[in-house]
Amino acid sequence: MQKNLKYYYNMEIKESIITRNSSYYFKHNNSYYVFCLYDRNINEINDIYQLSLYINQFNYYFGYIILNQNKNIITMIDNIPYVLIKTNIIDNKKIKLSDIKKYSLVVNHLKNSSLNRFAWVDLWSKKIDYYEYQIDHIKNKYPKIVDSIYYYLGMAENAISYIKDALIINQQHDLYVSHQRIKENDTLLDLYNPLNIIIDHVTRDISEMLKSFFFINNYDYEEIESYFASLNMSLDDAKLLYGRLLYPSLYFDLYEAVINNNTDEKEFLKIIDRVDEYEMFLYRIFLIINKQHQLPDVVWLSRKFNY
Q1: Is residue 92 situated within a structural domain?
Q2: Which of 140, 166, 244, 297 would staple 239 via disulfide (CB 3.0–4.6 Å)?
Q3: Is the pTM of this model over 0.85?
Q4: Are the beta carbons of 114 and 47 closer than 8 angstroms?
Q5: What crossing angle do the helices spanning 249-259 and 143-169 adopt, rounded to 10°?
Q6: Can you give the CATH number for the domain in which 22 is found?
Q7: How far is CA 98 from the centre of its chain?
């Protein structure tokens, strides 16, 4: 990789290069860099670059995308796309809830960007239709999926119904710099990596982080309540946050990974075996939010826990 960095970026790398998750980490002239595998839609890279330049004006820690000597964002190495990022993250700790609040940046002027993912109802409805269509085609090969998927499709439909009210009443929600997904073991380097960014509602990152924390048993209800109190959420924000907690994004992410042969079907057990626990988690979060806002009931949840 040293030769490639010399050829495309004129960088003489004298220190060791660390390889992790198909990306390369190294130090050059007292600065830290990551040569990142680019695994997103190629057509989004220009919008990612322009958004990253905007964020760099306001956030010291956000990574800088470095163009190669041909002034290209993407560098192809053996037909694999990479992007070079200069980072100011030295102490690479795991992400905390409080880190999300520090990250917030409104980008309403970019609502027409290809990175905008706030059309939740449309996106989720299309996913449901797609999964329902696939069931007959995968039922013999993936029995664990078929045994569980109807429950999660029901959860997704419930989530759509839940957020529709908030979206109809208020159609002028602010858009924020967000992330495709915040995963359970993500660090500050992942949080400030420009290749992870999208544009969405502020509650996206919060809800996805809470889901990830649940599945690694890294959550504390008092900490969550304190964090919510610091956000000063509106009722519509609270509805959208809770609706996104209802939406089973982690299950659907795993579905895609299994179908694309990137993981074993047995991984579903980590989610399926904890259905009752997650329903209790949803119930407890409902009670916490209800101390600030009167959320609409989730009928099946209220019947189960008699609240």
Answers
A1: no
A2: 166
A3: yes
A4: yes
A5: 140
A6: 3.30.200.20
A7: 16
Measured between alpha carbons, how far is 292 from 283 in angstroms, rounded to an integer? 15
pLDDT tens digits, the chain, 307 residues: what are they? 999 999 999 999 988 999 988 999 999 999 999 999 999 999 999 999 999 999 999 998 999 999 999 999 999 999 999 999 999 987 788 898 888 876 679 999 999 999 999 999 999 999 999 999 999 899 889 888 888 999 999 999 999 999 998 887 656 789 999 999 888 788 999 999 999 999 999 999 999 999 999 988 888 999 999 999 998 889 999 999 999 999 999 999 999 998 888 888 888 888 999 999 999 999 999 999 999 999 999 989 988 887 6
What gap in Å lies between CA 151 and CA 147, rounded to an integer? 9
Enumerate residues 6+ apart whose C-beta is below 8 A from 164: 121
Query: 55 and 156, same structural domain?
Result: no
